[in-house]
């Protein structure tokens, strides 16, 4: 079929890609506000560093490794479209929607970038910036790209993969590829690098809650490109994804605040911002696969579970600095598994061939079993691969910043600057 440009769909997808790219600077503000003032610039630089590293790799071989010719169901041929050369618009992921190849490639780049950046929140205040940049390059190449291929590029976790005897897995916008993947990686790195000095003994409060709320607001805004854009067209399915993204997030925020109020006696701004992100994470894989009731239920369940899960690090003794595990891993698992209960094709023209209605919509347990299998496979793959990368880096260049840098502030020690001039003067005095 000869490619026919659809200017409306193309304009929407360029807009959606821009919205998703905005999410990484938004994450920088969200994470930056949550750390102490002496490491805010380092925290933000980890997000910006991920943009530079992953953006380059994606153009060179990341896209091809994800969507190139399948190799054993594990990854695509990285040389098929090396440097984004050799492809025609007929080969675009969005060719049926009339969207050119380069627009498709650019949109997918923004997903890879935000996934890597998400991991950084688990290792705040203590990770070497040089080690982070090397890790980002390796991890996106041999963890993100293969998993994205397995789920979206026709590999082992896709329609014809390991669950083909059950049903087609549903991951509309990245519950497994993005959030479970990043959450597991964050947990592994947090354990490998060790706890911050004073973890569990001294307060490590967010230094700038307005930054946190600004970041959450911009993440919410950008997430409409993340979820509604994953339809690859400006149509009713994109509208359904947009609406579900809005309502699930509203409900998750309310559920988180209610949980906080009952548990701690206060409904906090940090809780509101965290609830927003939890809702966004959970609805991501289900955005076009559930109706409004399903979106409300997913938001409510995710808000409560994630609010409770962020306390697990104190119980189990791992230092997930900014709750990547509690929000992204738990939220991603919640949304992915709940598809097995709430999926419905009643109100959507989008539905993968072979996928079934969820348990509560008359489909039995088959789709639920499919979702659980794929989620567990993503956990194992990401966990094992991240562990191997982390151990290799720890044994060679090292993972952790020096004790002096951690105590005095990684901003000044690593980047030679501070976010706040008065803080910089105080830190220099303390170090002397």
Automatic annotation (TrEMBL):
Source organism, top-level taxon: Bacteria
Residue ranges constituting the Ammonium transporter AmtB-like domain according to the UniProt record: 11-420
Alphabetized PROSITE patterns for the sequence: AMMONIUM_TRANSP (PS01219)
InterPro entries from the UniProt entry: Ammonium/urea_transptr, Ammonium_transpt, Ammonium_transpt_CS, NH4_transpt_AmtB-like_dom
Bilayer-spanning residue ranges: 12-33, 40-61, 93-119, 131-152, 172-194, 206-226, 241-258, 270-287, 293-312, 324-343, 368-393
GO CC, any one term: plasma membrane
Subcellular location: Cell membrane; Membrane
MF (Gene Ontology): ammonium channel activity
Main location class: membrane
UniProtKB keywords: Ammonia transport, Membrane, Transmembrane, Transmembrane helix, Transport
Family membership: Belongs to the ammonia transporter channel (TC 1.A.11.2) family.
Protein name: Ammonium transporter
């Amino acid at each position: 079929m000869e490619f026919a440009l659809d200017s409306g769909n193309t304009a929407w997808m360029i807009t959606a890609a821009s919205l998703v790219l905005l999410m990484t600077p938004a994450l920088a503000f969200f994470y930056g506000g949550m750390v102490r003032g002496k490491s805010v610039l380092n925290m933000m630089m980890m997000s910006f560093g991920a943009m530079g590293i992953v953006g380059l790799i994606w153009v060179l071989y990341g896209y091809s490794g994800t969507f190139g010719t399948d190799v054993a169901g594990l990854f695509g041929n990285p040389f098929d479209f090396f440097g984004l050369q050799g492809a025609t618009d007929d080969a675009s992921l969005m060719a049926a929607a009339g969207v050119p190849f380069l627009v498709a490639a650019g949109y997918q780049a923004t997903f890879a970038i935000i996934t890597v950046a998400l991991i950084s929140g688990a290792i705040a205040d203590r990770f070497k910036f040089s080690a982070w940049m090397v890790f980002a390059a390796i991890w996106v190449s041999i963890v993100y790209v293969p998993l994205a291929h397995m789920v979206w590029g026709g590999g082992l976790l896709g329609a014809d993969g390991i669950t083909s005897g059950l049903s087609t897995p549903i991951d509309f916008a990245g519950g497994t590829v993005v959030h479970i993947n990043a959450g597991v990686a964050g947990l592994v790195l947090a354990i490998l690098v060790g706890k911050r000095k004073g973890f569990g003994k001294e307060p490590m409060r967010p230094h700038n809650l307005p930054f946190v709320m600004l970041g959450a607001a911009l993440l919410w805004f950008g997430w409409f490109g993340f979820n509604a854009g994953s339809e690859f067209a400006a149509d009713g399915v994109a509208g359904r994804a947009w609406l579900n993204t809005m309502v699930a997030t509203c409900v998750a925020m309310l559920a988180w605040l209610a949980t906080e109020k009952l548990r701690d006696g206060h409904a906090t701004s940090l809780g509101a911002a965290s609830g927003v992100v939890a809702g966004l994470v959970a609805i991501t894989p289900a955005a076009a696969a559930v109706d409004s009731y399903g979106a409300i239920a997913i938001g409510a369940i995710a808000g409560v579970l994630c609010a409770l899960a962020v306390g697990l690090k104190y119980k189990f003794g791992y230092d997930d600095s900014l709750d990547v595990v509690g929000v992204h891993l738990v939220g991603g698992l919640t949304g992915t598994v709940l598809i097995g209960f709430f999926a419905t094709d009643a109100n959507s023209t989008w539905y993968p061939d072979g996928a079934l209605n969820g348990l509560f919509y008359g489909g039995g347990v088959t789709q639920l079993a499919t979702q659980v299998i794929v989620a567990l496979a993503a956990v194992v793959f990401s966990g094992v691969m991240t562990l191997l990368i982390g151990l290799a880096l720890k044994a060679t260049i090292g993972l952790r910043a020096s004790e002096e840098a951690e105590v005095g502030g990684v901003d000044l020690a690593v980047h030679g600057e501070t976010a706040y001039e008065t803080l910089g003067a105080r830190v220099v005095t303390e170090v002397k």
